[in-house]
TrEMBL record:
Key words, A-Z: Membrane, Transmembrane, Transmembrane helix
TM segment ranges: 34-56
Superkingdom, taxonomy of origin: Bacteria
UniProt-recorded name of the protein: DUF2970 domain-containing protein
Length: 79
């Protein structure tokens, strides 16, 4: 079976890269940093979403109290 030279070269390059990645001393530190950064960003996003929801709910209650509960009419303007 004939294997093209470019395929053999590609396999050799991939083996070298995988070997370097497996034997790198700081390989796990990079992953831990990414997990920590992602957790911080997710926490900030969750905090902001909670804050925005609270503010919107408060403003909604204020608007409903100012308009007497929001109506319940027919949807037509008064005559």
């Amino acid at each position: 079976m004939f294997t093209p030279p470019w395929f053999t070269y590609l396999i050799a390059v991939l083996h070298v890269r995988l070997d370097r990645a497996r034997n790198a001393p700081s390989r796990g530190a990079s992953a831990v940093e990414w997990v920590i950064i992602t957790a911080i960003i997710a926490g900030v996003a969750l905090g902001l979403a909670t804050l925005i929801r609270t503010l919107v709910t408060q403003k909604q209650a204020e608007i409903q109290s100012n308009f007497g509960g929001g109506g319940g009419g027919t949807g037509k303007p008064p005559s």
